Amino acid sequence: MNQITVTGMVLAVTPVGEYDRRVVILTKERGKVAAFARGSRKPSSALVGVTAPFSFGEFSIYEGRTSYTLMSASISNYFSELRSDMEGAYYGFYFLDLANYYAKEGNDETELLKLLYQTLRALRSPKLPNRLVRCIYELKCVSIGGEAPQVFECIKCADKERKRVFSVRKGGVLCTECMHEASDGVKLLPSTLYTMQYIISSKIERLYSFVVTREVLVELEMIVKKYLEEYVEKKFKSSEILEAIVQLGTG
């Protein structure tokens, strides 16, 4: 076997047998890795704390012929403040699930890991609404996953000057000459379209540096939600719970 050290974050944890866990880690070096944490459910195990979701740091794993085994970890950030905030925690769990959906084994997932880390940090900012953080994360996540909408030019004729509508089914914007191609075309505020362009094109370090008006946020939420419903082929339990919690908070 070959022992390696990877930098990453725990995305999901599943009990195995009486004392073990199966841990899914999003790593910079190996993409998504599933490793067995032997004895990690024993109270005396050194792996008890390091196998919790959100744990970020360095993980020492053995690479076997068919599986990985987690041996030890040095955690630099547990994001423990999320555990005391139910709404923030479920935003976080949903973000982990979406990262788990897009991450691939053996792939270079440096950008996705960076996005996830910066997004969890953004959840702690009192200046940023969680709803905006979610929209930014979702749109950037699908962009990193290669499924970003075309928001810079007409997807039919590549025109950049004429006014445009957004079509979820067509996967982007259509100009006034081509909008008849889409029955679901929606006119967006210029600021909403600019916000989408900024999210898709900006470096991750600059993503959480702005706020938007309520009108723009409502439009952005509507478009991003419909886009994910169309192109993400999975329903997440964490998302359903989050929606219920948010509704209770606004009810």
What would you say this structure looks like, in words?
By secondary structure, the protein is of the alpha+beta class. It folds into two domains: 2-77, OB fold (Dihydrolipoamide Acetyltransferase, E2P) (Beta Barrel), CATH 2.40.50; 82-154 and 158-250, Up-down Bundle (de novo design (two linked rop proteins)), CATH 1.20.1440. It is 35% helix and 23% strand. It is built from six helices and eight strands. The chain has a five-stranded mixed β-barrel with strand order 1-2-3-5-4. A hairpin with a 3-residue loop joins strand 1 and strand 2 (20-27). Helix 1 (86-102) runs antiparallel to helix 2 (110-122), helix 1 runs parallel beside helix 3 (130-144) and helix 3 packs parallel to helix 5 (214-231). The model has no long low-confidence stretch (mean pLDDT 94).
